[in-house]
Specification:
3-stranded antiparallel β-sheet; 4% strand
Length: 224
Amino acid sequence: MDKNYDEAYTKIKYKIIHFHYLPGAKVTESTFRKDLEMGRTPVREALIRIEREGLINVVPQSGTFITKINMNTATNGRFVRECIEPQIMLEAVMKITSQNYVNLSHNLAQQTEAITNRQPDLFFDLDQEFHREFYVAANKLEVWDWLQLNNMQLNRFRRLRLRVPNLKWETLSNQHVKILDTVRQRNVDELSFLLRNHLHLMLDEQENVIDQYQDYFEEPLTNN
C-alpha cells in the first residue's frame, strides 16, 4: 500500500470520527488536500475507500458530505463487542504479562491527565488503547483490527458522547480502573459483569446523546 495513501486514509478517518468534520457537512477534495497538505492522488484514493466504509457520501450534482451516524449500525457494533470482548478478556487474564500491566497502568494515568486538561481527542484515543491492550495480551490483535474496521459508527457515537456536557468522562475512567483491578485479581465472574456494564453504558446514555445532537444522526432514530 502506498504510504501517502495510507496516511491520507488514516488522517481523514480520524478527523471524521473525532468530529473535526461534522456529520452532514459538505466537504470537497480540495478541503482535505489543504487540511492534510497532501496531493490529489493519495487523497482521492483515500476518499474512495472512506466512501466505501460509509463515512462520506458522494451525491451526484450535489457534492460530498460527511455521513450522519447510523444508530442501528452503532448498536449492532456494540452488540458484537459485547459478545466478543468478554471472551477476549478471559484469554487476556490467562496470558497477560508484566509489560501489559505497565502499559495499562500508564494508560490510566494518562486518562486522568486528559480528563484534568479536558482533551477529548486524547481521552478517546486512550480509551481505545486501553481496550486494545487486552486484545494484545490475548494475542487477538487481528480481532481488534477487524472490530475497528466494522465499528466506525459505534466509535463515532462513543466519541460524540465526550461532547455531552453532563456525561462525565470519569465514569469511563473509573470503570477502566475497576476492570484492571479485577484482571489483577483474576476474578473472572466480576470481570465479565464489569465489562458488560461498561459496554452497556452506550445504551444507558444513548437518549441523552441523541437529544443533544439530533442533527448528527440518520433517520429514523431507534432506541435499541
